[in-house]
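Lecture notes, unit on protein representations.

Consider one protein chain, 360 amino acids long.
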Amino acid sequence: MFPLHSDTTPGRTAIIDGKSHLFFSGFSYLGAHAKTAFREAFEAGLDLFGPVFISSRVANIRLSIYEELEHALAVLFRQQAAAAFSSGYLAAQAAIHYAQTKGEVLYAPGTHPALRLYNAVLPTMDHEQWAQQTIALINGKPDHTFVIAADAVNPLTGTIHNFSWLSAIERKVMVVIDDSHGAGILGPEGEGIVHTLPLHPPVRYLITASLAKAYSVEGGLVAGHAADISAMKKLPFFTGSTPIMPANAYAFLQSKPLYAAGRNKLQLNIHYLQKQVAKSSFVHNPFHLPVFLLQPAPHHPYIDQYLLEHDIIISSFAYPNPDSPAIHRVVVSALHEPYDLERLGGLITNYSITTPQNGA
């Protein structure tokens, strides 16, 4: 799909060339950015703290809201401590640069660029093969030889990765997991992938995530053992970077009930759309994520163009390279209403029935 330009941030809808379209792309899965209560909390944070904290996190003047935020993040992600950063990318880079001092990094297939070092080489095998190979490699070496780096959720394929295999590891290892697309969504409290991770003595976790994807907050975090977080806070990624906007920290801390309501609404929307597209042969969402992968037959009219003609925008772009085939996805948020999902589902079902398959 060619780029579409808007003068306002989309919510449930996006305005393109003065015309309203239903918006099924992007993220902000819980829809907080478009909620009045969240904006009021953010504005209250601006009134209290201004637009920026004018010092380093390690300067002699400290802002207590940051310690409150980090305590809340550590509790949410079930870790001993947490460090807050101004973006999810910066948080992931801080985590992997720290982790690589603890051993040789073993990347999972498809690990997001935010969690890679500059010289990273990714395996081309599938996750199950890689996991078995990784277990054998780690168990055959001394403790602390390796670090594992992996994503919790692949938002392009709508996959939640299984980490139960970590229970088979016999040597001490650090596991760095980017949970940007699971945090806020997975688990009863939005704690993300940690609610399924095995508690296995040889394994020490570092959890990193963007706060923007679900929580509508421009910021990121790393959570883990207190000793690891304390050591990370002595590195330039933390000491030399501008901290997260304090109004964002305040809005996050004030919005727990709003996030909980959004999570409930999001789950209802996911299940409702699943029912609407049950008859379509090319909609894939096996993990009940807010990402529905569309794989229509490769001929005209393409599903993104067809939906755009009906004033619906979905996520559609080439990946992993500019000349790669486009990935078409429907991204559902807590902002969508049942009639939006009915309309979308009807169009997708109609497309799958009326469009000839197998290039016919």
